[in-house]
Structure formats: structure tokens, C-alpha cells
Amino acid sequence: MTLPFFVYGTLRPGEPNHDRFLRGRTAREEPARMTGLVLYDGPGYPYAVEEPGSVVSGELVTARPEAYDELLDALDRLEDYAPGDPHNLYERVVREAVRQSDGTPVPAWVYIAAFGVAARLRTRGPVIASGDWTATDRRTRHP
């Protein structure tokens, strides 16, 4: 299934993995949001956890068709995701993103915290109340 990606952390413009993974592989990048997720601050990167009513800010990234498979593989490796692996930190799932520009809903891949990780975060993880990881001051939390 060829879908755009909803990114909310280190893959956003200006963040450390944007150029490393997305440069030259995208046809379009646009601000978007995704409801039903809450962000938790991780060790240098965020985790999205399913939470009804919450909203996360990010970017909707559409890969260039000829780069899609390569980008999908690269992002799966970045997120330590392998289909069906019980040791995944993240799961890649399809959820609806909404374009900021016109409110259009778009199905997209998003990496969310795997079940065990999500359970630990809900118990003792630091929530990013704004839903926007790039708006947080991470320098004071992760030296």
C-alpha cells in the first residue's frame, strides 16, 4: 500500500533526521495534524501513543514514486520496526492525517509506540501537552 507518511519528531524540517532520510526522496511535505494521538518525550525523540481526543502536529510527507520503497525501508530501519516483531519500539499503522492548508483528511503511515512501550509511557512518561515536539525545549531534558 503506497501512502504518505505522517512524521512528528526527528523527521520534521529542521530536525536531525529530516535531511538524512527525506532529502531528495519526497515530492511534497506539508503541515498536518493527526487526532487520536498524544506525544511523550523520549530519549532524544518522541513517541506517539493512541489517546482519543488528543492532537499531534507534524508533517505529511509524500515520497517520490521512484523513491517510495527505499524510503519505506529506511524509515522502518530508523524506527526499529519489523512487521510482527514483538521487540519493536514502534508499530507502523495507517491513521488519518488532516492537511493544515485545507482540512483534507488523508490516510497515512505513522509510527506509534508499540504496545509495551505505550503502556510504560502511560504510567510514567513525560507528556508533551502541546502535541508539537518541535515546540518543546529538548535541550534542557536531553543533554
UniProtKB/TrEMBL annotation:
<dbReference type="InterPro" id="IPR013024">
    <property type="entry name" value="GGCT-like"/>
</dbReference>
<dbReference type="InterPro" id="IPR036568">
    <property type="entry name" value="GGCT-like_sf"/>
</dbReference>
<dbReference type="InterPro" id="IPR009288">
    <property type="entry name" value="AIG2-like_dom"/>
</dbReference>
<feature type="domain" description="Gamma-glutamylcyclotransferase AIG2-like">
    <location>
        <begin position="5"/>
        <end position="134"/>
    </location>
</feature>
<dbReference type="Pfam" id="PF06094">
    <property type="entry name" value="GGACT"/>
</dbReference>
<protein>
    <recommendedName>
        <fullName>Gamma-glutamylcyclotransferase AIG2-like domain-containing protein</fullName>
    </recommendedName>
</protein>
